[in-house]
Amino acid sequence: MERNIETFLGCDNEFDESRIVIFGAPFDSTTSYRPGTRFASKTMRAESYGLETYSPYQDLDLEDAKIFDGGDLELCFGDTNLALDAITEYTEKVMQSGKLPLMIGGEHLVTLGAVRSVAKHYPDLHIIHFDAHADLREEYLGAHLSHATVLHRVWDIVGDNRIYQFGIRSGERAEFEWGSKHVITHKFDFEGLENVIESLKGKPVYFTLDLDVLDPSFFPGTGTPEAGGVTFLQLLDAILKVGELNIVGCDINELSPLLDASGASTAVALKVMRELLLKLEEKHIR
Length: 286
What we know:
This protein has helices at 40-47, 80-96, 110-121, 150-158, 173-182, 193-200, 232-242, 264-285, and strands spanning 20-25, 54-55, 60-61, 67-72, 100-105, 126-130, 163-168, 184-187, 204-210, 246-253.
């Protein structure tokens, strides 16, 4: 694989020497409210050069990491299944190479494409899901593939009590009723995260982060903002805790940069990305 011409800050290593592979999934065709997440990965790369490679939070530097940026996938906006297939195919190449995929969405449905591949390699896969929305609908406006149904579709793959949700503060009543029987949902914040992490030690975990888990006062640039979210520092603390687990795949999604002309939301997303990358690389660069 050839690295992208414009890479995320500090992520310009060759594929063979890297342990983490970044790629973008610029897809938002099932967005239910305000579109624009298809521009997130491109914008994040371009704006990342306003960020330092060094993290004072972790005393780690991306210049010491081995990360490959493969650029954005070319996805079919007119066919959701073709787009998901392309994501699964690329993720499979990463997995077969023994590397960790980190996907930048796009809307949250892109997670399904990656999980389809990762779950093939780890049949006992568990999911940690940070989000404002439950995303557990069986269908949305007649469509079974939607960013509003993505975690239900992931459940179709991993089954009962393998999905752990945090920060959830929005969804229809039926979602919460169904979820109470099939997933473990922690509403509003990260209370209970330490106990979940303890229970998942040694198990393969896919981490999916919908940035609208943040309160819109910190992160207005998203398609479906929900008041009552967490702060940046609360999210950072939670990410550093999750990063102690055996993370075998992850994604960051739902930044819609054009909805925040100030660029503040992109700046938040960039720092979240940097800290997650460094935590995943920590044991190799200490």
